[in-house]
Amino acid sequence: MDEVHHMSDPARPRATLSEVAARAGVSKATASKVLNARPGVAEETRRLVREAITELGYVPTTGPRETPGGQSIHVVFDTILNMYAVYVLDGIISGARDLGVAVVTSSLEEGGPGHPVPLGADRIKEIAAQGAAGLVVVTAELTGEEMTACEQADLPLVVIDPANPLDERVTSLGATNWAGGVQATRHLLDLGHRRIGFAGGPVQSVPARERLHGYREALESAGIELDPALMGSGKFEESTGAVLTDRMLGLADPPTAIFAASDSIAVGVLRSARRHGLAIPGDLSVVGFDDTYNAMWMEPPLTTVKQPLRQMGRVAARTVIELAAGKVPDSHHVQLATTMVVRDSTAPPSR
To answer: Could you tell me which residues belong to the region Disordered (predicted)?
Structure first.
């Protein structure tokens, strides 16, 4: 009876999910699964957690179930050697700071730039063993084994701009890439362009494919037949834009505009155009995607589709902490809106 009286004492601080987990002898993530009636927990474990909830008088809240002070988020990038990663990391750090959470970062390019290594199940186990509240993976490819490793380690996982399709076990964040592809292409169509090239990202990348599909949709809606000679793909790097633009400008009927699937690719497009003696935008209009810091400092300043990169980072930090606290996400895939930013690299075609 003393225990019951203590539970009802209004002076006693609210019990936390961590206290429930400790009383039941399980991890906080396992206690969260029981609380939210999720599968993958033995019946005996469920009984222990329910008993702990009753004994402690634990009452779930509608938001994060406890203050995350002292926790840390581990963030893994495929590479940090681009402005995209800098913007996303800035958002994650800002969001984590608001939550009182530390951020630990690492890159898959341990072998040096251009030599990524897989994340791997062993590394995931190490991150969990180090006490991370959750894992945020940015633009890297995740295997089924790695997703399973996160589940088994009770390590909440959020992926920003996944490089490959993911199942419902994973919460992912990104921009409205398809809509952004439509926005970029329609901008060029509205200016009067009809020969519009597409310099795309990796074929396996989900965001790159969505941008390509947006480009195709805009052209098809305008009644323009797709020309495979005006489409190409590669890495999200300057060299991709240069190689693809060299090829397109060698056609008998070259494009009057090119939509690049990232600002870094757009840099290569501009470089190739100048090498061919073309004026931007007089001879060739160029649209990028991302709106990173260097877009406005290009010559001329780049028209581009703005991704809310910092906001994506902030949302990822908040989401992974909410998952660690036991909150079930409203959606397993969240997309934040893109906007068109018109600068000086686009104009009506001269021919």
So the answer is: 1-22
Q: For the chain, what percentages of helix, strand and coil (3-state, to nearest 5) are there?
A: 40, 15, 40
Q: How confident is the model at residue 325 (pLDDT cuts 50, 70, 90)?
A: confident
Cis link prior to 13 (omega < 30° from 0)? no
In sequence order, the 6+-apart residues with CB closer than 8 A to the CB of 247 are: 232
Amino acid at 281: P
Q: Is the domain 177-308 a CATH 3.40.50.2300 member?
A: yes
Query: What architecture does CATH give domain 2-56?
Result: Orthogonal Bundle (1.10)
pLDDT tens-digit readout, 179-199: 999 999 999 999 999 999 999
Q: Which amino acid is at 6?
A: H
Which one-letter amino acid corresponds to residue 214? G
CB 305 within 8 A of CB 287: yes
Tokens of 337: 């809106």
User: Which three-class secondary structure state does DSSP give residue 20?
Assistant: helix
Q: Is it true that 72-175+309-336 and 177-308 share their CATH fold? A: yes
CA distance 320 to 327: 10
More reliable by pLDDT, 99 or 1 = 99
Where are the chain's structural domains?
2-56, 72-175+309-336, 177-308
In this predicted model, which residue has the larger pLDDT, 273 or 64? 273
* CATH code, 72-175+309-336: 3.40.50.2300
Quote the percentage of the chain above a pLDDT of 90: 62
In the chain the beta strands, taken as DSSP E runs, fall at: 72-77, 102-107, 134-138, 157-160, 171-175, 196-200, 231-233, 257-260, 285-290, 303-306, 333-336, 339-341
Q: Identify the weakest region by mean pLDDT among 52-56, 87-91, 160-164, 259-263.
A: 52-56
Structure tokens at 247: 């090829």
Average pLDDT over residues 304-326: 94
With both helix axes pointing from N to C terminus, report the angle between 263-275 and 83-99 in degrees, rounded to the nearest 10: 160
